[in-house]
C-alpha cells in the first residue's frame, strides 16, 4: 500500500518554496522563463544528459550541485544554449549570476536549465530582464506558473505533488516537467524540477534521485532521439522538520522513495502521453527477464521501433512488428519461450495463436495501448512508456514555419 | 581506378544463370515469386539477419549454403513466413523441395527467401503453383523480371551488373535487391541476390561477401528497424572459365572485390534512395575517426535520428540536430575537435560558425543531401546512406487499408 497521497500543487506544494514564470521575449509569445527558489539553502542533486554535445547549462548545473547544496533553479525555454561553445558557457554562468543577484543567494547555488533550438545564442538582455521580473513575482503559489514557464510544444503543464510521513512528520514532494520525451522533439528537451520539504542529506538524496530517474524518465521515449539538454534536479529544504534522512535504512526513507518514485513516474508518463503528435499512450510491460536492465532493453527496443509505433497510430493489430522489434534487441531470447500480448489479447505463445480478427480490429480504438511481453528467461519486470508515431510528429518537426512561440 | 565496368542486366548478366518471376496470388496483383537458377552447382554464401525472431527461410538458407554449394534461389513477396513457428519451418523446407523438383536440383542446394507480413502462414498451394510456373518460364534474360518479382513497396526494380577481369579472363557479377532498408518498412525486408560467373572457392566467396555487406547493406538505414528476414546471398558458378580464386592474394581477387563492393554499394544506395515515403537521399560521411567501426557508429546515430530526418524533409538547415545526434552515439567525441558540414556549408568547427541564412535555406532544395562530420580523433572514414522521414512513411505504415498488392 502506498504511504503517500496526492495533493494539489506542484513545486510550491512543499513548504518554503516560491516560484514564478514570465514572458521575456526569447519566444514570440507565452512564458519563457521560470524561477524556483527555496527560502533557505537546500540539499540538492541533479542528473543531466550523457550527450557529448550537451548544453552549457548542464555543466553549470553539475557544478552547482557538486557540493550537495543549491537554492535556486532558473530555466528558460525558446533557446537550448547548446552547441554554443565558450560563449554559451559564459552565458549560462551569467544566467546563474543574474538569478543569484535577483534572489539574494550565492551564484554557485543556482541550477541553470535551457530548452529550445540548438546552435543559437541566448538573447542575454531579454534573459536578464526576465530574471529580474520573475524574482519580483515569486510567490508560494507559483508552482503551476513555473510549470507553464518551461513548456515548449507540451499541450498542458505537467505537475504533481504528494504528502507522506517521515517518522511521524508530514513531508511534501512536488514536481514539474516539460516534454515531450527523454528525448527531444522539436529541438526541445526534457526538464524536470522536484522540490521537497523533507530533510534528507545530499548523498542519500542523490542516490534516491538516480534510482527514481532510472525507473521513470529513463523508461520513456518519444522518438529515440537523445537530447542535449535533459536535466532532472531536486531541492530538499528540510522545512518539514523531520529528523534528516541520512541512510537507506532510516525510518521514513522508504516512504520518501515511494513518494519520489510516484512523482517521477507520474511526470514521466505525462511526457510520454503528450509526445509530439501523439494520439495514443503506450505502456510496454516486459516480464520474465533475467534482470530489470534486460527487461528495459527489450521494452525500449519495442518503444523505439518506428513501424510498431506507426501501426498503433493506424489502429493496426500488427503484433508481428512487436516480435520483430523485440527480436532486434540485443537480448538473446528464444521465440519458443516468449509470450506477446497486445491489449490483453495473446498473439504469440511460443507459436502463433489463432486470432479473432474482428476482436483485434476493435482492440486498438482507445487512447491507451498495453503491450505485454514475457521473455521466459527469469523473474524480472520493467515498464517502458511511449506514444505512437504520427504524421503530426513529422509535420511539426519538419518546418521552418513553426511559430517560435511553440516550436523551439 | 576501378577495374570493372557497368554492363546492362542483372542476375542473368553472368553466364549460366536463368531467372523468372510470376504472380501466383500471395499478393492480390503484381509478381510475387521469383526463381534464379544456375546451370550448374555454384559456390555459394549468404548472410542473414541477426534478429532473434528471424524468419523460417533464413534458417533454410543458412543450411543450404553451409557446405558452400547451392544452385537455386527461390523467393516470394507478400508473406514473410516469420513468427510462424514449426509450421513456418516446414513450409520453408517444402518451398525448397518444390523448387528443387521443378528445376532438377537437390533440395539442399536451394536458397529460400520470403518477404512480407509477419505472423501469417504462407499459402502453400499458391506457392507450389507459382514455383512450377516460374520454372517453366526460366530464361537467360530473366534477371530484370526477377528484380520485379521481389519488389514490395519499392517504386522501381533495383538491379546492377558489372564486368571485370580475373587474370585475363572476363567475368561478370550481377545483383538484384528490394528495400527499403537494412531495416523493414511496411513489414517488408531487405533481400539481395548476387550471381557471378567468376570461379571462386566458397570460403573466399564467403569472406568477400561478408566484407562487402558490412560496407554496403550494413551502412544503410531507413527507419532503424531491424527486419526478421534480411538476406544477402551470392552464387558463383565458374562459367567464366577463370582459374578459381582461392586466396586473398590470388591475381584478380582485388578486381573481384572491387566489383562486388561496387555492386553491393550501388544496390544499397538504391534501397536508401527508395526508402518508404522518401523524398531525399542522404549521404553521411564521417571522417577523422579512430576506426571504421567508430565512424560508422556515428554515421548510424545521425542516420537514425528522427528529428534530423524530419528537418531534412522540411528543407530546414537545422545542423544543431546533427550535433545532438552525433553526441548521442556512444563515441566519446570532444565537440571542440569536431567539424560539421551540411551541403558543404560548415556550421560547426569546434564552435558555431556564422551562417548566411539565405544560403542555408536554398541549400536543401535538391533531392541529394550531404552531411560531413570530422570527429578529429583519427584517420578512419565511413559512409552511411539513408533518406528523410516523411508523413508518407507514417501513412503507408499505419493502415490496414494498404492494398495487399503493395503492402506486405
Q: Span from first to last CA of chain A?
A: 41 Å
Main sheet: strands, sense, barrel of chain A:
9 strands, mixed
User: Mean of the pLDDT scores of chain A?
Assistant: 87
* Assembly status: homodimer
Strand/helix succession of chain A: EEEHEHEHHEEEHEHEHHHEEHEEH
Which homologous superfamily in CATH is the superfamily of the largest domain in chain A?
L-amino peptidase D-ALA esterase/amidase
Structural class of chain A: alpha+beta
Which architecture of the largest domain in chain A would the CATH scheme give at its second level? 4-Layer Sandwich
Say what the CATH topology of the largest domain in chain A is. L-amino peptidase D-ALA esterase/amidase
Give the uncertain stretches of chain A in residue-range form: 181-188, 400-408
- Rounded to an integer in angstroms, the radius of gyration calculated over CA atoms of chain A is 22 Å
Number of strands of chain A: 14
- Helical segment tally of chain A? 11
Binned strand content of chain A: 25-35%
Q: Biggest interface: chains and residue counts?
A: A-B, 67 and 68 residues
Helix proportion of residues of chain A, in percent? 25-40%
Q: Sum up the overall morphology of chain A in one term.
A: globular
The count of domains of chain A is 2
CATH class of the largest domain in chain A: Alpha Beta
What's the SSE blueprint?
Two copies of one chain form a homodimer.
Chain A: E1 4-7, E2 17-22, E3 33-48, H1 56-65, E4 69-79, H2 85-103, E5 110-117, H3 124-136, H4 143-149, E6 158-166, E7 169-178, E8 191-196, H5 202-214, E9 231-236, H6 253-273, E10 281-289, H7 292-303, H8 306-313, H9 319-328, E11 339-342, E12 345-349, H10 357-363, E13 368-374, E14 380-387, H11 391-398
Parallel strand pairs in A: 4-5, 8-9, 10-13
Antiparallel strand pairs in A: 1-6, 2-3, 3-4, 3-9, 6-7, 7-8, 10-14, 11-12, 11-13
Helix pairs in contact in A: 1-2, 2-3, 5-6, 7-9
Amino acid at each position: 500500500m502506498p504511504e503517500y497521497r496526492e495533493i494539489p500543487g506542484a513545486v510550491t506544494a512543499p513548504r518554503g518554496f516560491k516560484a514564478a514564470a514570465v514572458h521575456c521575449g526569447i519566444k514570440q509569445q507565452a512564458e519563457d522563463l521560470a524561477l524556483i527558489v527555496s527560502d533557505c539553502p537546500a540539499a540538492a542533486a541533479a542528473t543531466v544528459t550523457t550527450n557529448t554535445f550537451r548544453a552549457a547549462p548542464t555543466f553549470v548545473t553539475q557544478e552547482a550541485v557538486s557540493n550537495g547544496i543549491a537554492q535556486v533553479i532558473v530555466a528558460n525555454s525558446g533557446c537550448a544554449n547548446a552547441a554554443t561553445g565558450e560563449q554559451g558557457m559564459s552565458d549560462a554562468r551569467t544566467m546563474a549570476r543574474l538569478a543569484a543577484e535577483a534572489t539574494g543567494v550565492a551564484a554557485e547555488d543556482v541550477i541553470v536549465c535551457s530548452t529550445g533550438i540548438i546552435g543559437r545564442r541566448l538573447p542575454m538582455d531579454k534573459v536578464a530582464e526576465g530574471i529580474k521580473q520573475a524574482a519580483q513575482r515569486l510567490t508560494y503559489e507559483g508552482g503551476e506558473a513555473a510549470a507553464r514557464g518551461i513548456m515548449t510544444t507540451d499541450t498542458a503543464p505537467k505537475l504533481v505533488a504528494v504528502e507522506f510521513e517521515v517518522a511521524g512528520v508530514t513531508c511534501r514532494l512536488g514536481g514539474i516537467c516539460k516534454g515531450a520525451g527523454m528525448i527531444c522533439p522539436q529541438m526541445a528537451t526534457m526538464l524536470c524540477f522536484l522540490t521537497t520539504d523533507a530533510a534528507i542529506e545530499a548523498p542519500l538524496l542523490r542516490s534516491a534521485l538516480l534510482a527514481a530517474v532510472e525507473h521513470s524518465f529513463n523508461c520513456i521515449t518519444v522518438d529515440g532521439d537523445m537530447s542535449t539538454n535533459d536535466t532532472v534536479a531536486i531541492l530538499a529544504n528540510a522545512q518539514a522538520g523531520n529528523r534528516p534522512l541520512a541512510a537507506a535504512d532510516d525510518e521514513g526513507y522508504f516512504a520518501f522513495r515511494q513518494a519520489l518514485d510516484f512523482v517521477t513516474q507520474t511526470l514521466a508518463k505525462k511526457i510520454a502521453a503528450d509526445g509530439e503528435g501523439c494520439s495514443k499512450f503506450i505502456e510496454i510491460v516486459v516480464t520474465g527477464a533475467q534482470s530489470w536492465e534486460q527487461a528495459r532493453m527489450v521494452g525500449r527496443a519495442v518503444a523505439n521501433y518506428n513501424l510498431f509505433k506507426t501501426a498503433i497510430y493506424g489502429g493496426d493489430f500488427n503484433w508481428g512488428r512487436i516480435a520483430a522489434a523485440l527480436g532486434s534487441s540485443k537480448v538473446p531470447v528464444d521465440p519458443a519461450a516468449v509470450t506477446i500480448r497486445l491489449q490483453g489479447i495473446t498473439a504469440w505463445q511460443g507459436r502463433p495463436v489463432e486470432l479473432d480478427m474482428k476482436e483485434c480490429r476493435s482492440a486498438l480504438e482507445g487512447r491507451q495501448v498495453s503491450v505485454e511481453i514475457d521473455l521466459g528467461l527469469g523473474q524480472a519486470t520493467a515498464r517502458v512508456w511511449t506514444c505512437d508515431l504520427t504524421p503530426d510528429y513529422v509535420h511539426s518537426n519538419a518546418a521552418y514555419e513553426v511559430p517560435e512561440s511553440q516550436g523551439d
